[in-house]
Amino acid sequence: MLNLHLTDRSALPAYMQLYTQMRDQIRSGGIPYGMRLPSVRSLMQQLGTSKTTVESAYHMLLTEGYAVSRPKSGIYAANPFGASQPAPPSAGTDRTLSGPLPKGPAEEAHRIDFRPSAVDAQLFPMRSWRKMLHDTLDRSGEKINKYGDPQGEYAFRTVLADYLRNSRCVVCVPEQIVVGTGIHYSVGILAKLFAGIGRIAFEEPGFAPVREHFNQYGFRIEPVPVTEKGISVEALEQSCAEAVYITPSHQFPTGSVMPYPERERLLRWAQTKNAYIIEDDYDGEFRYSVKPIPSLQGLDRDGRVIYIGTFSKVFTPALRMNYMVLPLTLVEKMNNVNYLFDGPSRIDQWAMQSFIEQGHWYRHIRRMRKTYGKKHHRFIGLIRDYLGEHVRITGHSAGLHIQLTVDTNRTSGILVERAAAEGVKVYDLQEMWMKPVPSERPQIYLGFGGVSEQQMEEGIVLLKKAWEGLWEEA
Amino acid sequence: MLNLHLTDRSALPAYMQLYTQMRDQIRSGGIPYGMRLPSVRSLMQQLGTSKTTVESAYHMLLTEGYAVSRPKSGIYAANPFGASQPAPPSAGTDRTLSGPLPKGPAEEAHRIDFRPSAVDAQLFPMRSWRKMLHDTLDRSGEKINKYGDPQGEYAFRTVLADYLRNSRCVVCVPEQIVVGTGIHYSVGILAKLFAGIGRIAFEEPGFAPVREHFNQYGFRIEPVPVTEKGISVEALEQSCAEAVYITPSHQFPTGSVMPYPERERLLRWAQTKNAYIIEDDYDGEFRYSVKPIPSLQGLDRDGRVIYIGTFSKVFTPALRMNYMVLPLTLVEKMNNVNYLFDGPSRIDQWAMQSFIEQGHWYRHIRRMRKTYGKKHHRFIGLIRDYLGEHVRITGHSAGLHIQLTVDTNRTSGILVERAAAEGVKVYDLQEMWMKPVPSERPQIYLGFGGVSEQQMEEGIVLLKKAWEGLWEEA
User: Fold this and answer.
1) What ipTM was assigned to the predicted interfaces of this complex?
2) What percentage of chain B exceeds 90 in pLDDT?
3) Residue B411's CATH number
4) Which residues in chain A have their CB less than 8 angstroms from residue B80's CB?
5) Is A5's Cβ below 8 Å from some Cβ in B?
């Protein structure tokens, strides 16, 4: 007999008491998975309660997957997240899912993952960041109990504006900056400020998540081809777009960099069409062996550029902090639209302000740039050594990823598959296309930020093994 | 002669070099506000540059407010944020604002602010939170360089699910929880999940920011009157709403609590109409001298309730962290809609997980409840002592604010004004109405979370002084 009790003194109704007690016992193992649960009638008798009570509790357990019903046999305890678990029986209720619940983030199955978004964990400035948090909490005093400025802490934005001017030639005052939690946060705000705009051009291939996000907000997407000089301004000029999203410092995913003349032409387009340019400078801080090109925003004299930057690459994606610099017209518009904001923790903003003010930030960037420069050099060297003339490396003048064009007549899908079979995760450029077109040679992109030099070598050796035999005959 | 230099070796074009140098000198005081700047011609000569270069730089300085043009006199350096600063001259460009830029959050002008959203700064568990952050960073290891689960850290959601079950009778599994940065974040996600829903009912009066946010997303708002038992379910049944946003544990702003029978009736409405109920339990942890009523979500057997809670009241609004519990149907829908998320810092989520797991959270809530219970008791006592029979107190069984109905024939606006003249900020209930109706007696709401007991007494004494003479003749 199960250990179950109903009481009048609970705030919960009887069916809820029964449901929670049984569920908790299933969760804790008190009722083991697979055990047959008492029949409705016997539980009614044991607890002296109504049929409705027992049936309601069972109904909840069934629809949440803590129990499964086997026809002509009874109801059995089950692990709702068990891999071998059948989907909960459809009881025709709203609570029933068509499949098992997702199980949280899947465990990484690859030994080596050339994930473009990963950064180097060893480089995180653990000691100084801990000190910043510590000191910031010490000094927070009465500020700690208030909401603060939804656009971001003003003093933090002041420090950010200085950094952006010094490092990225971004011209702005703190009033133009919106501190956020990531690119989707920024896009959410832009979607409101862009009321009246119908069509947005995107690089093709381009960063699919942002494209999809704008699409969800109801904008029409116009794909515009990417050349070795970034987005084709000529093609953009032919389009009907009223805004464009680009990654001119290091195009995602191809890695191309937009040269100065193209930038000027793009700005002229925006000025003529009264269009907006969203400049996503996601990894503009990292640049190797080429003269830095200032941000588009800094070249813009007509308030057409929205600049977006992030702490995810230079600092850590775990912090979830980014910023957007709006032209003054959009600042004005923003001030008339309330309730846009739920930005990052004030405490983190205070800590980051100190981190920058005290010089840690600049030192950290220099260190990152140096380490990534070294890793980048090594990465290119390894690819040349092991994959040789079978691949062409492009997009490697900046950032944390490169593009490979592979000399084979197989598809990029095959290349990804073969690599995966050797335990190496590489990324298919096709997936970043809105309307994929078959390219003459398959293209793959790989990030080197999150792998150690040793993993890097191991990964490239495995790639050689995976792809050998696929090479096009010379 | 100003210290300005142009060089070919800069990454910036000449006009940008000139602009940034002049602006930085104006900012640093090298060029004092009010100083007349050189004429275009003389700068051209000094720098050996073109007219376009100088004019472009001046144009940027003018439109950003670092310079002002005085007709027939010249161009003068200016403080773009100076109070006595005239608006930048309209040069017919997109960069010109119609007024001066906002200056960041305004300084609080009131001596005592009964702000309903403020919490007690003294109660923030500084030591233990610092320790959690410290330990969490120590243990973060390789996790620190990855994005993590956009829905929120899975282990944190597991701990949250347990807390919600134990404390608020919320029935859920971690897969149903979405960790966010605040109510606007949650509303942004719901707005997408509610595709197909046209009308949402709101409490009238109700929490205006959420109402306005849904309105901005294109939903039709149906105001439904609030009684002493929360939203009028009877009126809701007459409406065409397909969803309703409510604060049943402590209605905002009136403070009424929805009794059990009304909750059951509301759930029946949702089941019959296939409608959703958004339960915002913003301060449900605080409850005085009344038996706790479990969350609506815990009573829901049909997956109609979305539960939203926050760390802003019990912990601190500075953290910007909240959570939403979705019914399983919406979880399924959510899993099919990508790119919704940019939640709070992973580091903060790990720290909060430890804070809860190690028991700090429960201790903290008990301490908060005790302190707020005491403050609440004192607050009611002071109001009765000083304002006596001239006011009626309602909505005081829970939460961090109460409602006053004042015995006067003046408007609530007058009451707020008179209070402000004495340095006390109180809040006008009218502002939370969608379509304000004149009430027989004006209504004011006051929060006591953010004021000390001493400020509380001082504030009530000043309120008596402010409102004396306005009382209705007996």
Assistant:
1) 0.77
2) 57
3) 3.90.1150.10
4) 173
5) no
